[in-house]
What we know:
16% strand; 12 helices; TIM Barrel; alpha/beta
Amino acid sequence: xxxxxxxxxxxxxxxxxxxxxxxxxxxxxxxxxxxxxxxxxxxxxxxxxxxxxxxxxxxxxxxxxxxxxxxxxxxxxxxxxxxxxxxxxxxxxxxxxxxxxxxxxxxxxxxxxxxxxxxxxxxxxxxxxxxxxxxxxxxxxxxxxxxxxxxxxxxxxxxxxxxxxxxxxxxxxxxxxxxxxxxxxxxxxxxxxxxxxxxxxxxxxxxxxxxxxxxxxxxxxxxxxxxxxxxxxxxxxxxxxxxxxxxxxxxxxxxx
Length: 256
């Protein structure tokens, strides 16, 4: 039995727009709820969410029956972290703060078994193979892993074309909050200078044959990124949605 076909990776390769949302709670029950909402993909956030390898595994399990594809964002691009999340069953991973081709190549190698990569061969006892049931996993896993890199500062933008030339990268995600801050606009991703850099980056990613991605929280920003051609577009964050709707509900009834 081979590794499961990664239909999210296939959709990105075809240029089909995928609408997603962020999971920042670190809780499997929230992931399960969000998995019932109809998003194409959901980010299990290991960078800013309170996650460890067990909570990431539990959220992957909670999304197993969902049509939403889980994407695991690591805290940082480290080979040992890639190995862990792949072994617990992730097929889509998002690497923050990529600035150089060397980082990009290292992450490609981390996602592949030898002789092409550096991934440790130990998945037989892991969830990735359904504990040995997926007998051809090692022979077929490499082509089903979807590697997404985040470019979110001036150094990454400067090296974007070289990063895009790295074979094995499926998509590049622009991080507007970090980018705007690094550009001197302190999180103001709507600043015209930041918007111009963002639009140019998304266009360059698409032109290079990769899938361009981004997160929008405010509706105006999300629409702007949609119009810029973002193909894997996140349109919200679970905890922000909860907080905003709960505050609105409380305010509505307390003001009567």
